[in-house]
Design brief:
alpha/beta; Aspartate Aminotransferase, domain 1; Aspartate Aminotransferase, domain 2; 2 domains
Length: 398
């Protein structure tokens, strides 16, 4: 017997829940792509995107996913043989490094595992030993696989403390529009993000924000190709140059509406909403874990993302729980990406709950109640009334 008929909840860490407002904005005939309302709207999107990123720098739009934005950022900043330092706290830092290596950039990874943030002292020690080769530090603010949240302001502080001139490049795929990010105030030179998470727009667009310092690196970058070149996309003389071709018309309509939703709520309020809902989720899992094997992947609350929570189930019942929630109750949880090899028995021991973008208290409480029912259904030992602990957080802070 399944009770999943009705509205389903895609609670994976991206793509996130698409707001009805965004979907309605996209449901329209194809527009004129040469002049008129669409080009005028896109010109207005750029300063609004920069406002969410907290930057006065530049913004380039690409028709691609987040992996494409990795390549765009690397292409515009480096030449073959350049060296970048990648402090890794999960799968996605490794992925960015793989993209760099694929186009001829050398990468050195400082791997801090799957349960810790960047060790800034180790980073400083490596930068102090550099002979001038390291051109950039490429980091991830929130690694979607581990749910660790790195302190980007402190990372810039560590780089400045040793006087290293490298670019600071940050992946904000799972954090922009969910966790505080201050591009200019924190001294970030390049930031990349996709459309489908905190920006609440379907997958298919990505954005590269960059400083004047990063653009100066573009002067000598020999990895850049015609399509990935960010310069023609910034303040172009003709509309099609924003995209090096046909615009992603309906994605742009969706993004316009999503940005309106962020502006109406207020970015600070968006950050606070994500923080409160995340704390409610943590309270539930900590209570469940008090009498069983369930454990949040990141132990220190100060290091946890406010957009995704990675969970260790302690047995193969992690996958059983995911399957039960989806097939019996209409809640889709995320797989434990990168936590174990795909063919290893431990692969089934992990899952993730995405809580980014268009989410509110009743959605989160409903998801947690479904998980609690699933824990009982699959026989995964747990402490009582995790949902009650979550409700206490929401009641106290709403």
């Amino acid at each position: 017997m399944s009770l999943s008929n009705g509205l389903t909840y895609l609670a994976i860490p991206g793509p996130s829940v698409m707001p009805d407002r965004v979907l309605r904005a996209m449901h329209r005939p194809a527009p004129n792509i040469y002049y008129g309302a669409l080009p005028e709207m896109v010109e207005g999107l750029i300063p609004r995107l920069k406002s969410v990123a907290r930057t006065e720098g530049h913004c380039a739009i690409y028709i691609c996913n987040g992996h494409g934005s990795w390549e765009a950022a690397v292409s515009n900043c480096f030449s073959p043989g350049d060296l970048v330092l990648v402090p890794a706290t999960g799968r996605f830092a490794h992925g960015w490094a793989e993209t760099a290596r694929a186009i001829g950039v050398e990468t050195e990874i400082l791997d801090f595992g799957k349960r810790a943030t960047i060790d800034l002292e180790a980073l400083k020690e490596r930068l102090l030993r550099d002979d001038g080769r390291i051109k950039a530090v490429m980091a991830v603010q929130t690694d979607t696989s581990t749910s660790v949240r790195n302190d980007i302001a402190a990372l810039r502080g560590a780089m400045d403390a040793v006087g290293h001139p490298a670019l600071l490049m940050v992946d904000c795929m799972a954090s922009l529009g969910c966790d505080r990010f201050e591009m200019d105030a924190w001294g970030v030179d390049v930031m990349v993000v996709g459309s489908q998470k905190g920006l609440m727009t379907p997958p298919g667009m990505a954005f590269v924000f960059f400083s004047d310092k990063a653009d100066r690196a573009r002067e000598t970058a020999r990895c850049v190709t015609h399509y990935w070149d960010w310069r023609p996309r910034v303040d172009p003389p003709m509309f099609y140059r924003y995209f090096n071709g046909t615009a992603p018309t309906h994605h742009l309509y969706g993004l316009d509406e999503a940005l309106s939703m962020i502006e109406e709520e207020g970015l600070e309020a968006v950050w606070t909403r994500h923080e409160i809902l995340a704390e409610a989720i943590w309270a539930a899992f900590e209570q469940w874990g008090s009498e069983g094997p369930l454990e949040l992947n990141i132990r220190d609350r100060a290091l946890r993302a406010h957009s995704v929570t990675a969970v260790r189930a302690g047995s193969e019942k992690g996958t059983a729980l995911r399957n039960w929630c989806e097939t019996k109750a209409g809640l889709t949880l995320g797989i434990g990406l990168g936590m174990a090899e795909d063919n290893a028995p431990e692969w089934d021991h992990f899952f993730r709950l995405g809580h980014m973008g268009h989410v509110n208290a009743q959605m989160i409480l409903g998801a947690l109640a479904t998980i609690e029912a699933g824990l009982k259904a699959v026989g995964l030992p747990h402490g009582p009334d995790g949902v009650g602990k979550a409700a206490e957080v929401i009641a106290a802070r709403a």
